[in-house]
């Protein structure tokens, strides 16, 4: 069916077009942009902004429930590239079997590959929250082990992995030579890496190598394309030094990219290496900055933190790395988002219910779901802060940061990405239509599953997933985005 979006403000970051026009959608593609166009279905979008759907490079949402929240936030392609999954074949098969509202894809997981080799092949080769705090896979590999898990990564890339996801921050004492080997593999295969960096030298002077410098150095020495994940959370109070080093590396010709999200708290497993009492002290934080996700308990002291880490190292928690109520800390978040060519990525987390399930298919979501508000609100909050409230970005720049630039990071390894992040003839009909006066986040730390407000329509491959501000529970048009090695 041909659908005409009539009379909206059309924004295409690929061509720089920003003006009133009609958009004709046919057979999953943008068929025409202009005036006096006709179609069997006409949707009046006058007064609304029409742009390419947001491409989220960093989402740990592997469920219909989580993707529905992201759909209401304007996302049309949701990719897990920081952690990734293995085996890649099973990850794609599971998503296809269930169906997804949004397009999906995965990197080959460094953490899962190491865990399979160093732990002796855990159940399904995935990195779960419990494994993040398990020191048995965080040690340096022997030469034979390194060869074995690099082979698993190669197979993951051959099976369609969108690069290599590296959770280096969870194995911060491992030999930097291993990371260099990963970068060499990525350069050889022509795929990017996506890294959660290890500690900065300001935080831990004994770190084997400064986390940010490790990425920049490996990119310079190997020629690999290397992406620095959530620079806001891993840099914290040292964001200005890291961004300056990033700018220097980029000017020197390194193929480095960076992302940020607009929150002062992250989310992970309480057993993670960087949430130990001594690591928190190094960061200038204390246990009261740690909040259990499922119960809301704010950790009282180091004794209680050690007890919780021992009892259930996989328990999801929040870590307040910056204070969003503090002007200086908010300014640091703003600088991470406004840094030239920094892209927006959510780090969306799974939604858990009290019974431990996360595969819920009800809509609206049942009460009691626990997650980080960034799952539901990252993009709407960013637009509220950067466009509506501060005017830091134009709408053209907003779509460039949320749609166009993220897709371009994948152009070399995923041919399917080349038609995303654009709103021009021939592009995929992954389209968001939003109210420029109303777009805002609604999710909070207390109520993290409240959908964003202001996304009026969302199309994935030309199929409406959101219509007139209401999600369509029957819509599962998401398709896989796969990588191709050289």
UniProtKB/TrEMBL annotation:
It comes from the Bacteria. It holds the Pfam family Amidohydro_3. One of its GO terms (cellular component) is cytosol. The keyword Hydrolase applies. Residues 41-466 form the Amidohydrolase domain. Keywords: Hydrolase. One of its GO terms (molecular function) is hydrolase activity, acting on carbon-nitrogen (but not peptide) bonds, in cyclic amides. PANTHER family: COLLAPSIN RESPONSE MEDIATOR PROTEIN (PTHR11647:SF1), HYDRANTOINASE/DIHYDROPYRIMIDINASE FAMILY MEMBER (PTHR11647). This is Dihydroorotase-like cyclic amidohydrolase. It comes from Kutzneria buriramensis.
């Amino acid at each position: 069916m041909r659908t005409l979006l009539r009379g909206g403000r059309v924004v295409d970051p690929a061509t720089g077009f920003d003006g009133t026009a009609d958009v004709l959608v046919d057979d999953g593609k943008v068929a025409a942009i202009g005036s006096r166009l006709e179609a069997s279905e006409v949707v009046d979008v006058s007064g609304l902004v029409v742009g390419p759907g947001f491409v989220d490079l960093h989402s740990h949402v592997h469920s219909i429930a989580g993707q529905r929240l992201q759909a209401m936030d304007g996302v049309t392609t949701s990719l897990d590239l920081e952690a990734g999954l293995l085996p890649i074949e099973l990850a794609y098969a599971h998503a296809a079997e269930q169906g997804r509202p949004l397009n999906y894809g995965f990197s080959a997981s460094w953490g899962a590959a190491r865990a399979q080799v160093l732990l002796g092949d855990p159940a399904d080769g995935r990195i779960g929250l419990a494994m993040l705090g398990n020191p048995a896979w965080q040690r340096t590999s022997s030469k034979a082990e390194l060869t074995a898990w690099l082979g698993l990564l190669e197979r993951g890339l051959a099976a369609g992995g969108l690069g290599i996801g590296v959770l280096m921050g969870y194995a911060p004492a491992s030999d930097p030579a291993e990371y260099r080997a990963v970068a060499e593999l990525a350069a050889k295969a022509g795929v990017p890496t996506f890294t959660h960096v290890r500690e900065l030298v300001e935080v831990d002077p004994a770190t084997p190598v400064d986390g940010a410098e490790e990425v920049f150095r490996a990119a310079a020495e190997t020629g690999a394309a290397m992406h620095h994940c959530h620079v806001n959370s891993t840099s914290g109070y040292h964001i200005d030094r890291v961004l300056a080093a990033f700018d220097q590396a980029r000017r020197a010709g390194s193929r480095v990219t960076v992302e940020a999200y607009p929150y002062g708290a992250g989310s992970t497993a309480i057993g993670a290496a960087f949430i130990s009492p001594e690591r928190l002290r190094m960061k200038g934080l204390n246990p009261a900055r740690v909040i259990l996700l499922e119960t809301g308990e704010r950790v009282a002291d180091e004794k209680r933190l050690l007890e919780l880490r021992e009892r259930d190292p996989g328990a999801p928690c929040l870590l307040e790395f910056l204070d969003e109520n503090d002007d200086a800390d908010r300014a640091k978040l703003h600088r991470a988002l406004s840094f030239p060519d920094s892209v927006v990525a959510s780090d969306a987390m799974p939604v858990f219910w009290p019974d431990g399930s996360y595969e819920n298919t009800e809509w609206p979501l049942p009460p009691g779901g626990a997650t980080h508000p960034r799952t539901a609100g990252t993009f709407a909050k960013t637009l509220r802060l950067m466009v509506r409230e501060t005017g830091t970005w134009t709408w053209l720049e907003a779509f460039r940061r949320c749609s166009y630039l993220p897709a371009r990071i994948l152009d070399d390894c995923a041919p399917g990405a080349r038609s995303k992040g654009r709103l021009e003839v021939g592009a995929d009909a992954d389209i968001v239509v939003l109210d420029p006066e109303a777009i805002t986040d609604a999710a909070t730390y207390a109520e993290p599953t409240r959908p964003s407000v202001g996304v009026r329509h969302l199309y994935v491959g030309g199929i409406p997933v959101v219509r007139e501000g209401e999600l369509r529970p029957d819509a599962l048009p998401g398709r896989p985005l796969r990588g191709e090695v050289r």
